[in-house]
User: Fold DNA-binding response regulator from Caldimonas thermodepolymerans.
Amino acid sequence: MRILVVEDEPVLCAQLADAIRAAGHTVEVAADGATARYLGDEEAFDAVVLDLGLPVVDGLSVLRHWRAQGRNMPVLILTARNAWHEKVTGMDAGADDYLTKPFHMEELLARLRALLRRLSPHHSALWQCGAIRLDTRQAKASVDGRPLSLTSHEYKILSMLMQRPGEVLSRTELSEHLYPGDSERDSNTIEVFVGRLRKKLPPGSIETVRGLGYRLLPVETGA
Assistant:
């Protein structure tokens, strides 16, 4: 998944980005509200972690702007320990969940997983499609119980396909979720990663829809 982290404290921002990347996601960061607002307007994100106490433009204003523009990605807001009014105002402004600072990173990741599950047909952290199983808590995949050795790019593509099984995802859409910002975006490289991934999955798991993209199909191996 592609996650936007908006936090002006450099150390915490780096910790958040590292933890979310380690969970198998692509991360983009913003250190102020104006940058966050622009990125949310121009880019597609699956979820946002949004601190409310931001410079330039405050987090609540950013959130209200996104919702007014019809941007409906899940937003997890970060609030100060005693700022209960921020929690109420944030939820009224369109936040999907909140977390009070300081917090344990595992709790943030769990809340983020819960928000992302709302976007998919999966109702737990364990996703299944035929013989393929994805453990989103551990960022691990297996086929019939046998662990798969995947690169970070292969894992991200597989998780995207498994989030929307049976749906066609274009090369451009996969590329946008694979790379942060505008860096290295080349839809042609998606063919390479999909080709490598195919070799590790049951035959027929990834179908190419000519001119449109790829979709994941449930294939049983009989093992």
Summary: The longest strand covers residues 2-6. The chain has a mean pLDDT of 88.
